[in-house]
Amino acid sequence: FVFRVCVVYVGHGLLQSDEMASFNSLASLAMNGIALCFRGTDQHEQAQAAFRSAIKYAEQGKDSTGGDLASIWHNRAIHMQDLGRMDTALDFFDRAVHTSNLSIPEAAMVASSSRCKAASIHAELKRFDEAAKQYRAAIR
Question: Which of 95, 57, 63 shows the shortest CA–CA distance to 76?
Answer without folding.
Answer: 95
